[in-house]
Specification:
Elements lengths: L1 E5 L3 H11 L4 E5 L3 H8 L10 H11 L2 E4 L3 H5 L3 E4 L14 H11 L7 E4 L7 H6 L8 E3 L9 H6 L3 E5 L3 H16 L1 H8 L10 E5 L1 H32 L3 H8 L21 H14 L5 H24 L8 E5 L14 H11 L3 E5 L4 H4 L8 E2 L3 H5 L4 E4 L9 H4 L8 E4 L6 H6 L3 E3 L9
Parallel strand pairs: 1-2, 1-4, 2-3, 4-5, 5-6, 7-8, 9-10, 9-12, 10-11, 12-13, 13-14
Helix pairs in contact: 1-3, 10-12, 10-13, 12-13, 13-14
The protein binds nicotinamide-adenine-dinucleotide.
Length: 448
């Protein structure tokens, strides 16, 4: 098939790369010329495990190219995927300007019978509005994306479900079948990306109504956000009562009705999806006169967690962090990505600047991206040892593997008084042997 992918971010670039090595001709369209030239040189515009290798293979085969021009690419496209960003507006609602802009521009050139597919996460009801912008001969399919940054390629192959929702059943089936072609190239992709996958995996291919497909995506993210904030609420009680959040949640999760996933306490969720998907759900529900106090609560707990961690550190320093040298290890919103959008690590750094502390931060991949939102008073260290050298307090703010063994890096911190583990990534046994103070999140009993 001739496929066009509009938007070369995490979702669009991953889809473009994978379709291009699964027997299709793919054109990736992005308005950002830097992304276009990076992709044409076989490189992803961000760090994502295995993706560069697949992109390079697609380009080498002549099955993938990137451009900023719509006309030529869209005119010959059988399927057009919209994968542009849907950030939030200041009031929390979804900003659909990019989604509408992409659909309007594509609609000028779409051929009869082409399928227009929405992979971007949009509020329920958006599809009906986009359909009005498209020629009547072009079916619209909502095909929400469930990949996680840091494991985007893996998740696309080891999917739990692929959903195609829309009124035209044949179009839904075509989109599901198109994804099946990627699964059919499972072994090739595994070899090219050098990521190992579990053989024999079976995910579901599901056709739904348009509105259900739209709501499945935001509901999934909202529920995961809810689980994190729930764990963080219980973690605060653990600290107060001397219980341990990991013991509590792992045994709570033994109950099959509950499950263990996403019960990890820490400095809260961030990134380009959860915060804006939660606020988008609250806002879109409101437009249907439905209140979502449960999601507002999840969001408030999440906003509070960086403050909670700082308060716990302050307790150990008589409430005063003025002029304290603090190293922040990790700036990305999670490990294995360079994405710093809404990163709680950056929020912690900036809040500590307001406390008058001297902040030096280091991330193995995200230093450059972080600079856009970090306070100018934060020094960014090129090397971990430079961040640690004069630190009295070290905050682990992202669970990169290079921070998980304290004995790997504590010798580089000569004045260390306190380790604050904002992501609970240090091993409990090692923590109990630290000759400095320790605070975690909800690990009440093991705080030194
Ligand atoms: N990042 C994730 O992990 C993830 C996972 C699932 C779903 N999603 C959803 O997928 C969508 C895309 O997310 P992302 O993280 O890939 O976004 P992103 O911000 O990384 O990339 C979006 C890209 O779209 C481009 N763009 C904007 N308007 C355009 C236009 N009119 N024509 C061409 N290009 C245009 C931008 O230049 C940018 O490169 C969002 O709705 C997001 O919620 C993201």
């Amino acid at each position: 098939m001739n496929i066009v992918i509009i938007g070369s971010g995490y979702v669009g670039t991953t889809a473009a790369a994978l379709f291009s090595v699964s027997g299709h001709n793919v054109v990736a369209i992005d308005l950002d010329p830097k992304k276009v030239s990076l992709i044409n040189s076989g490189k992803a515009p961000f760090y994502e495990d295995g993706l560069d290798k697949i992109l390079a293979a697609g380009i080498e085969k002549g099955a993938l190219k990137a451009t900023s021009e719509y006309e030529g690419a869209i005119k010959s496209a059988d399927v057009v995927f919209s994968c542009v960003g849907t950030p939030d507006n200041p009031d929390g609602s979804s900003n659909l300007a990019y989604v509408i802009g992409a659909a309007e521009e594509a609609s000028k050139y779409l051929k009869d019978g082409a399928i227009f597919v929405q992979k971007s996460t949009v509020p329920v009801g958006t599809g009906r509005k986009i359909m009005k912008l498209l020629p009547s001969s072009v079916p619209y399919v909502s095909n929400p994306e469930f990949l996680r940054e840091s494991t985007a390629v893996y998740d696309t192959l080891m999917f739990d479900r692929i959903v195609a929702g829309g009124e035209d059943q044949e179009a839904n089936r075509s989109i599901l079948h198109l994804h099946q072609t990627v699964e059919d190239h499972f072994e090739d992709i595994s070899r090219i990306s050098q990521i190992s996958y579990t053989p024999g995996h079976t995910g579901s291919y599901l056709s739904t109504s348009l509105e259900s497909a739209e709501l499945i995506k935001v509901t999934s993210n909202a529920f995961l956000a809810l689980k994190i904030s729930f764990a963080n609420s219980i973690a605060q009680l653990c600290d107060a009562a001397g219980a341990n959040i990991e013991e509590v949640m792992s045994i709570v999760g033994e109950d099959q009705r509950i499950g263990k996933a996403f019960f990890k306490a820490g400095r809260g969720y961030g990134g380009g999806c959860f915060p804006k998907d939660v606020s988008g759900l609250i806002s879109s529900a409101r437009s249907f006169n439905v209140d979502m106090p449960i999601m507002s609560a999840a969001s408030s707990v999440n906003d509070y967690m960086p403050h909670y961690i700082i308060n716990r550190i302050k307790e150990k320093f008589d409430g005063d962090l003025h002029n304290e040298n603090i190293a922040i290890l990790g700036l990305a919103f999670k490990s294995e990505t360079s994405d710093t959008r809404r990163s709680p690590a950056i929020k912690i750094a900036n809040l500590l600047v307001e406390e008058g502390a001297n902040i030096i931060a280091y991330d193995p991949q995200a230093n450059e991206e972080a600079k856009a939102t970090l306070s100018e008073s934060v020094t960014v260290a090129e090397k971990r040892e430079d961040a640690l050298k004069d630190a009295t307090i070290v905050i682990i703010a992202t669970d990169w593997s290079e921070f998980k063994v304290a004995s790997d890096w504590t010798p580089q911190a000569h004045n260390l008084k306190l380790v604050a583990d904002a992501v609970n990534c240090l091993d409990v046994t090692e923590v109990s042997q630290l000759d400095t103070g320790y605070v975690g999140v909800g690990r009440g009993q093991i705080d030194a």
